[in-house]
Amino acid sequence: MNQKIAIIIGAGPAGLTAAYELLKKTDIKPIIFEMSSDIGGISKTINYKGNHIDIGGHRFFSKSDRVMKWWKAMMPIQENRSGEVDITYHNKKAAVQVSEDGPNPDKLDIVMLIRSRLSRIFYLRNFFNYPISLSLDTIVNLGIIRIIRILFSYIYAVVFPIKDEKTLEDFMINRFGRELYNTFFKDYTEKVWGIRCSYISAEWGVQRIKGLSIMKTLIHAIRKVFKKDSSISQKGTATSLIEQFLYPKLGPGQMWQETARQIQSKGGELHMNSYVKYLKSVDGKVKAVTVLNKETKEEANYEGDYFFSTMPVKELIESIQGDSVPHNVQEVAKGLLYRDFITVGLLLKKLNVKTRRSRNAQTMVPDNWIYIQERNVKVGRVQIFNNWSPYMVKDPDKVWIGLDYFCNEGDELWSKADDEFADFAINELVQINFIEKEDVLDSTVIRMQKTYPAYFGTFDKFHLIRDYTDKIENLFLIGRNGMHKYNNADHSMLTAMTAVENIINGKKSKDNIWLVNTEKEYHEEI
């Protein structure tokens, strides 16, 4: 009997998880095709002259017990002299033993670090807690008059909420009040998406910040006075308030590189620089794919029994041949939009910006990333890679940061040459007194296409695509771009795990795959 084959498009978290689960639980052989030369998709790590760049920032924590166990099995947690780490699941704590003889990150690379989390907002040349709290610093920085307006605005939103939440603007005003929304959320969110919040579906807010509000922030602050949660998973805490997480020593791409290595060692195939041009569909099933090798320019056909797609839905629909794709499905696919992403890595002697919470007020602030709310610059976030993992920086005496820009392929930002863009980014940080130009030692520019699937364009008709693809029995849409759904890495993994389970159990419906990341308890920040 011939071995069954699963064709997997994409070597990101979803695709690699699907391949690993197939090898672990079935006799199906996975063959993975990755268009680029990198492992990990948008969760990859770039090594630039020994300095590592995390594209967009990836904290390893999940409300899913299954995902947490999967991560820890793939990369064990670093040595811990206390002998145990408390991890909270379903509001129950479990002590995970971590031996002093466990992985030492100074000696071994395949190790998960335990990291502290701090993300703040930089606005009016000052730092604000994220989420916003009514601390003394916040009151001083904003001023008592604006604080009063924020409070009354929130009370008004509670008493007179917008009843028909259609847009992201409606969603945020109902949870934060119009004044706080205008102060901290509107400009940044429109910087991310490039359009007004009133044009974005409320569903985006439901997926990304559904657990956060002023009231929950206040409750969390009160609880912190009496009890500090030292757990990693922190099941009872909204994601935006989580204060600890796991992180691979050399960045998130290390997790997926190790996963790829294990997949290949177990008999799976991985083909890099391989672009899937066509999917051949016959009688409601995908039979084969045509793959273009980007280096040799040769095309080859691969037959399979199951097909997992993490490629952008727009491209997937365009690639289907054989069975006729309904015209309305084609039109919806053509109208799907994406937001692209540019990261500028800067190696510095020091940072100019200072904070009272700095470990070293001369060179460092303690944040993992900082939301740049200043309206006169286009940079959206600044990551400080030293604080993600000290091992990501070649010279510990230098500061290694990433500037995150949101743009559209072909627009003014995207079209800048790399040198021009690096100068532009440096000047923006100088403009807001974040750095001094003479402290810049080196720079690099990295571009990522289709990083964020947009909740506008033809998204309101996406159900037509889902209805069509769900009927293709052996095709499984998984992951962020594969589902045009703003999933985190753990959500993407769960979609892959669920799809594999459906195959094992002979389950035809794909509803449970689409239900991932709709649960009420999972919350995420912008």
CATH superfamily of the largest domain: FAD/NAD(P)-binding domain
Structural class call reads: alpha/beta
CATH architectural group of the largest domain: 3-Layer(bba) Sandwich
According to CATH, the fold-level topology of the largest domain is: FAD/NAD(P)-binding domain
Major beta sheet summary: 7 strands, mixed
The portion of residues assigned to helices is 25-40%
Q: Please report the number of helical segments.
A: 17
Which stretches are poorly predicted, pLDDT < 50 over at least 5 residues? 87-95, 357-362, 520-526
- The 3D shape can be described as globular
Proportion of β residues? 15-25%
User: End-to-end span in angstroms?
Assistant: 50 Å
Into how many domains do the coordinates divide?
4
Average pLDDT over all residues: 87
Physical arrangement of strands within the biggest beta sheet = 9-8-18-19-20-17-21
For the record, the CATH class of the largest domain is: Alpha Beta
Q: List how many beta strands DSSP finds.
A: 22
Radius of gyration: 23 Å
